[in-house]
Amino acid sequence: MQIEHTDVVIVGAGLSGIGAAYHLTKKCPNHNYLILESRTAIGGTWDLFRYPGVRSDSDMHTLGYSFKPWNSAKAIADGPSILKYVRETATDNKIEEKIRYNSKLTGANWDSETSLWTLTIAQTDTGKSVKISCNFLHMCAGYYSYEQAHDPKFPTTDAFKGKLIHPQFWPEDVNYENKKVVVIGSGATAVTLVPSMAEKAASVTMLQRSPTYIISRPSEDWFANGLRKLLPHSWAYALTRLRNTRFQEYIYKRTRKNPEKVKKTLLDMVRKELGPDYDVDKHFTPSYNPWDQRLCLVPDSDLFTAIKNGSAAVVTDHIDTFTENGIQLKSGEHLDADIIVSATGLQLVMMGGAEITVDGNIVDFAKLWTYKGLMVSDVPNMVSTFGYINASWTLRADLTAEWVCKTLNHMADTNTTSVVPIVPADLLDMPVRNWIADFPAGYLQRVMHLFPKQGNREPWVNTQDFRRDRTLFNQPLGADTALQFSQHKESTVKSA
Predict the structure, then answer these.
(1) Do 175 and 311 fall within a single domain?
(2) Residue 493 within a domain
(3) By C-alpha distance, which of 340, 323, 317 is closest to 181?
(4) Can you give the pTM of this predicted structure?
(5) In terms of domains, do 290 and 181 share one?
(6) Do 310 and 410 reside in the same domain of the chain?
(7) For residue 359, is it left (φ>0), alpha (ψ between -120 and 50) or beta?
(8) One-character DSSP codes across 202-243
(9) Which among 344, 367, 395 is the end of a domain?
(10) pLDDT given at position 178
(11) Mean pLDDT, residues 360-369 taken together
(12) Domain region containing 115
């Protein structure tokens, strides 16, 4: 039976997928494409997450697309504004008509004889399964499970008689006005929830096992807003984006070279916010160096304001058990709660949870090598988008989408049908590093054993460095000996 075919399939209609579709539309107009979206709407994370106060933790001049200026006064934007921005991009560029909703990729098999991927797609609204073939597969499905959050296995949660909520699955009908709320966690989601819920709740307590570095900055960018009054918006946006990416890079590199000095600066800022009587050492001084885990951004000091006015509090302790009306801590203290929010992180998955095979053999990504952090050795015609953990996600998503277009056009020009990274035999024993190196955050460490290996030399690296990536991605494809372009490629992936 003949199945539907298209040149390129993009998996995911979130920030990355819509951006990838824009680049394809503009730079590869002779390539047809479809977008598979497992849910019923555009937006990915920005449509899924509906918890109070949901917002970016990066400025929108770097989290926004390179091609679409962010013109709002607020650079630290709320979730609905970001969702509107993504949807505008899709509408303005006629991308939405390319999206297949309720279409979850469950499997993809590369056939070396035909140089085609055959995709197995579960239609989530009907329960049926369909197949589509394509020449090139661009994974933009994000890095975490949409169906399952991280479960830290808290003891005796069944004993709690109130509401236990995970932010990823926020109920529309939850009423927290005049309620006692405990938010478990100290990451980006927790520090967003606490000041937002404190506006209506009777009390909000952020319960953390250990502190996180937290930095405040204005939600409005004076530089960007000033430039827009003087220059065309596209110029102002480009200059602000350049300034902010360089500033992100500068801060990150300072944390690598002078971690103690950066640590002192960050903690001095917190002490200035909360005053001399607050126990910053206990509640806001992590055991690790800055940017060993992601810094938490709070706009306009909202978390610190809530703590100072008494509507929010921070408790640093360990959970002993859940009780009927709250949480018993190992210190002996009890936190009363009507609502407990478990802001304990995401459950990471590879390739959106789809099974990837080459000539019928399951790909074991952990045994393969990353190529520039976007392809995987021995797997043809597949690129996966993964942004930066130390800067804005979209910076790398844009670079990746541009690289895909350049590669597709090169293949058209050279009349080739497949491209695959091949590690030379003399490099197969090069030193191995984690796919994300030197970043011990728990949510990543839990799954690094599933990701491809990173070597110690280009292009078998995942640099997490925007300027270095920009140079690396722009290298001429015709001179890249790590890539093998051909009409047909025999499988080199062995069964896992």
Answers:
(1) yes
(2) no
(3) 340
(4) 0.93
(5) yes
(6) no
(7) left
(8) SEEEEEESS---EEEE-SB-HHHHHHHHHS-HHHHHHHHHHH
(9) 344
(10) 96
(11) 95
(12) 4-146+347-486
